[in-house]
Design a protein that fits this description.
259 residues; mainly alpha; 2 domains; two-stranded antiparallel sheet; 2 strands; elongated
Length: 259
């Protein structure tokens, strides 16, 4: 199947669920549901962080704080995307116009199709990677707890998939099972949301710095020219997967390692 846009079908579905796709009915309702559910879980996550903010519980603090900050970053990204959704809609219209103009020139159409295929592959890879990472992260605590139980540790405390603290009793069934299922779905939705936003950034293309530089930015008003300059500088920093914020996990980094 030949790609006709740089936005992959999976990415389009995700943007519809976030309520930022143009001409979508009840888009505000979808966005409110996502944002409100994130804020509710964030409240209980920060309760856990503040209650365990002590050196004697450093491991629990680090584990809870990392997932809490990741959820906060996701919330900020989605809120920013929703705030600037009209700009995103204008970008989609411009992309559709480019495809229509390229349909009559085989050379340009081949280049657009090639870049769209790469964009689809990368966005789908991000979505699959985040999904599997979320599953393994959630199951990690249960695997460690199971290993402790097999070695005879007397630990009967029931744990949720992520570090949260509720102001009420949660150990009894079926309250624990319902909350655990809700948190599991929340984390999976959050992982997919991060992949959707990052995939969208990648899809709005790798060559954005060249396109911005080739525009007549020097003839624009000073306030608009500054915005284009910041776009050029920001787009020169590639979106990359890092190992602990230390090095990029890329083919260049792998080839530079000497064995």
């Amino acid at each position: 199947m030949i790609a006709t846009t740089t936005i992959s079908p999976a990415l389009k579905i995700g943007l519809r669920c976030l309520g930022v796709w143009p001409d979508m009915p009840h888009s505000t309702v979808y966005c409110v549901i996502v944002m409100s559910s994130t804020l509710i879980v964030q409240y209980f996550q920060y309760l856990y962080v503040f209650s365990h903010f002590k050196l004697s519980e450093l491991s629990n603090l680090v584990d809870g704080l990392s997932s809490t900050l990741e959820s906060s970053l996701m919330f900020i990204k989605v809120a920013s995307l929703w705030k600037h959704r009209r700009v995103f809609h204008q970008l989609l219209v411009a992309m559709d116009n480019d495809w229509r103009e390229c349909n009559h020139v085989d050379q340009y159409l081949n280049i657009m199709t090639l870049k769209a295929g790469i964009s689809h592959f990368c966005s789908n890879a991000m979505l699959n990677f985040n999904t599997f990472a979320g599953v393994f992260y959630l199951l990690g605590d249960y695997a460690i707890r199971f290993a402790y139980l097999t070695k005879g540790y007397n630990n009967t405390l029931r744990q949720f998939p992520i570090k949260v603290q509720f102001p009420f009793e949660t150990e009894q069934s079926p309250i624990f099972e319902l909350l655990g299922l809700a948190l599991f779905l929340h984390v999976m939705v959050g992982s997919c949301t991060i992949a959707i936003v990052n995939g969208l950034i990648f899809s709005l293309s790798k060559s954005i710095s060249d396109a911005a530089y080739e525009s007549l930015w020097y003839d624009m008003p000073s306030n608009q020219g500054k915005i284009i300059s910041f776009m050029i500088l920001r787009s020169q920093k590639r979106l990359a997967i890092t190992a602990g914020k230390i090095m990029n996990l890329s083919l260049e980094a792998f080839a530079s390692v000497s064995f």
